[in-house]
Fold this sequence. Notes:
By secondary structure, this protein is mainly alpha-helical. Helix content is 64%, strand content 1%. It is built from twelve helices and two strands; from the N terminus they run ααααββαααααααα. Strands 1-2 form a two-stranded antiparallel sheet.
Amino acid sequence: MPPEPDPADRLPLRRRLVPVVALLLLAPWAAECSWGGFAIDDVLPVIISLGPMYGGAAILIRETARRLGAGWPTIVLLAAAFGVLQAGLVDQSLFNPGYLDDTQYADTRAAAEASLVPGLGFSLRQAYDYVGNHILLTICAPIVFVESFLGAKRRHRPWLGRPGLAVVGVLYLLGSLLVFTSPEGRKNFLASPLQLFFATAVVLVLVAAALLPRWRRTRPRRARRVPHPLWVGLLVVLAHLFTDPTPGWPGVAVALALTATVGAVVAYWSRGARWSQRHVLAAASANVVSAAAFAYLVPPYSPASPAAALAGDVAVTVVTVALVCGAWWRLRGDSPAVHAAAR
């Protein structure tokens, strides 16, 4: 049954809103800043301007899953739907071959065009990167971190009532509209009707799959061996390292195969009776740490002074260390027998 708020445990409004605000701010930071995308003086404007869209989506996805009593399969599928919606319909970067031409990533265009999908005019490599980053960094990792900071009793329960959900929904729509109409967002590009139809169809299929009743069923835990959480994190880090080197169609094939394999292994482990929030946090931490580690190696979108760029990278390191260490410290008292696979 979907979890309902317990009136006996009702907290003051300000305390109930803390995780909502945290997710609203953390999602845009993880999506755009955690990998070194912006110099230090651009970080705050990015979080403020993109918070309603990225943070709003993360909150709506998290609340939908928790209200349905569904778990991570639903969250991942809804995150994938958001990634396609964002890149295919809102800023339309998926279909715009010149989307990065005015940034310091203009030289990636040739590599992207090495895996163009015939008839639809988008790079499968870019689709993998854009949608994958939205799944892992924009949606899943921020949800895991915020939930890990909460007590076990509140971790998997809804945070908002209907009025709150309505407010967040309006924020998300306004934030998306701002990006769609902004020259810096959609960059005055409009995808073809076929491309828009394709993106819409994929979004609808992913949403329909996310809402299947099977994800709401409670399945018995199995007495199988579950590795230490650090092994889960290491597996995710290795997957990041090996999904980038090979260009073109072979690289896409390797990335998709490796992602599917890692996902299957993690799903198998998560059915074990001793799978816990620590394991979920290990996977999320590995994604954010992997992104932050490369912040020093990649340039920000826009040219910046070396000092501003370095300060931005150092800030990424500080925030990442604070998030990871704080979340692990918060879980120190959780019993390893408390599983999280169905949540």
